[in-house]
Structures are given as structure tokens and as C-alpha cells.
């Protein structure tokens, strides 16, 4: 009886130990990606997705196939993507900015939706708040119009 | 077989079973790690997300009690139905939005055609919508993309209205199909509800 309990405890310790080792390995692998060319796809909470393949990429630059930012494994990098702001407007998060998003922002604006109200906090109007100032107003409509007039689909 | 030997075999069997469980668990976790790492490297640094990681499309915002019942359509009307069109002829094609009296904030569509058979010469706006952030003609691809919006300070009901009128020149003989590109057509109102039920294409024979 004692022998069996001892054996069970021993193997239980082994199982937990093996699991912890594997988990740690997994974390290390995830933290240190291989070196090579990387592209960055960035999507905001209600914004269209843009692809970045250069540090400090400017507004008009379009990435070509195979292009990317060369990163070495284990090194730290500070990349700046602020030159090319994400276009506001994918309020329903379907991968494209369109009339459904326009209608959502317009509806929230017409309802004068503000932070602290149910329509804003739970009803979804918080996604239509373009500048995170706690209310949906014409500013959001203007930004959305700008996105619609450009390239409204996710890259 | 004596009792001691039986006990020993039993003890050994239990140990082997537990050891194999440990090994299987370890190999499984390790495998998962390598699989993810492999995809990570193969994807040029892009961590592929599982379907469960993808954020679903958000529900329309419930501004009113209006349900998003799909009852509206886009259809095409040309002045040449039943007539013969010859290469060189210019005819008009209207894109019409029809709803049973809904307040439609905006409509959008992509209309495709064969650019070898026809050329869109001109695009004219309709009267119902006042803002047109997109009214692009891609003559190489054979695509017309239109986004039309109602004045944001008005809430007029739409019944049957021309969105745009296209002036089309027939270039060569053949069956000219005008189709709406799937998933790119919407008719929205009431906080993002999409009322579009269907689109009706049109074929013009150029003889």
C-alpha cells in the first residue's frame, strides 16, 4: 500500500515537472521568433487593418511581395508606425469599412450616445467613438467619410 | 507463479503505464510547441490564429426596434431591353435601389462587367443620395464601385431610387453580363442593419 502511494506521488511529481518544463520551453520559443523579414498587420478596435513592411513607413507607401523589416532573433527593436494612421470606421469589425459602419456611427450620433449610458457601454456605440472622448459625434462621421473615400477594405 | 513475482509484475505494469502517460503528455506539449513554432517561421513571422481566436463580426447597434429583415434589392435597368445593341452604340444603365419604405442611410455595391465587351464612359449620381465617397470605375478590371450616402441630417424613406446612371459603350459582339459582386453589396439603416435581400443582374446581347 505504502509502495503504491509512493509510486503514484513520484509519477505525479514527474508529470507536473514535465508539464512545467514543456510550458517554459513553449514560452521561450514564443518570445524569441526566428530572424528574418517580418511584416506587421495592425488593426485598431474600430479601424481598418494596414500592413507595415518598413520602419517609419510613410502614408502612401504600399508594400510589395516579400518585403519586410529584417529582425534578428533576441534583439530589441523600437519600430515607429505612426506616420500611417489606421483609418477609422470598421465599427462592425467585418474587415471592410462600408455603409453598415456609416449607419452605425450615424445612429449613435443621432441618439447622442455618451459614455455611462447603456447604448454606449453595452449597446455597442463605444465602437463608434472615433477619438475615445466618450461620445459619438460628427468627428467620427468625418473620419469615417475620409476612410470611405479612400481605400475602405482591410489590407 | 509465486505471490512475490505476481506483485512485482503488477508493480512494474503500473509503473510502465504511468511512465508512458508522462511521456505521452510531454511529447504532446512539445509537439504543440514545435507545430506552432513551425507555422510561425513558415508564415514569415505571422502567428496563424485559430478560428476561435478570430474576433466575430459585431452585431448591429440596436438604436431602434427595427428588425434587420432583408426586404430590399438592387436591380438594373437599361434603355435597350428587347432591342439590338451593336458595337459602337452607347446606352444607359441605371442601378436602382428598392426597399419597402425603409430609412436607408447608405448603399454600396460593386458592379462587374467584361471590359473587353464594353466601356463605362460616364457615371452620373442619382437624386436621393447626396454624398458619394466612392464612385470609381476600374476600366481595366471591369468594376464599378459605388458608396452613396443620404445626407446625415435627413432621414428620408427610400422606396425606389436611382443610385447611379452609367453611360455604357458596346465595344464588341458578345453577351455582356452586369453582375453585383457578392458580399460587397449593402443597404444600411437603423444603426447598421443591412436590409439587402438580393441583387438582380442584367445581360445585354451585343450583335
Can you offer a commentary on this structure?
The complex is a heterodimer of chains A (155) and B (207). By secondary structure, chain A is mainly alpha-helical. Helices cover 37% and strands 8% of the residues of chain A. Chain A is built from four helices and four strands. In chain A, the strands form two sheets. In chain A, strands 1-4 form a two-stranded antiparallel ribbon. In chain A, strands 2-3 form a two-stranded antiparallel sheet. In chain A, strand 2 (40-42) and strand 3 (50-52) form a beta hairpin. The mean pLDDT of chain A is 88. By secondary structure, chain B is of the alpha+beta class. Chain B folds into two domains: 1-56; 72-206, Immunoglobulin-like (Sandwich), CATH 2.60.40. In chain B, strands 3, 5, 6, 8, 9, 10 and 12 form a seven-stranded antiparallel beta sheet that branches. A five-stranded mixed beta sheet of chain B has the order 4-7-2-1-11, with no helix packed on it. The longest helix of chain B is centred in the first third of the chain and has 40 residues, at 3-42. Chain B is elongated, with a radius of gyration of 30 Å. At the A-B interface, helix 1, strand 1, helix 2 and helix 4 of A face helix 1, strand 3, strand 5, strand 9 and strand 10 of B.
Largest sheet of chain B: 7 strands, antiparallel
Give average pLDDT of chain B, whole number: 86
Enter the CATH topology name of the largest domain in chain B.
Answer: Immunoglobulin-like
Order of helices and strands of chain B: HEEEEEEEEEEEE
- Structural class of the helices, strands and pairings of chain A? mainly alpha
Write down the overall geometry of chain B: elongated
Spatial gap, N to C terminus of chain A: 65 Å
- How many DSSP-defined strands of chain A? 4
In N-to-C order, the SSE pattern of chain A is HEEEEHHH
Arithmetic mean pLDDT of chain A: 88
Helicity level of chain B, as a percent range?
Answer: 10-25%
Helical residue percent of chain A?
25-40%
CATH architecture of the largest domain in chain B: Sandwich
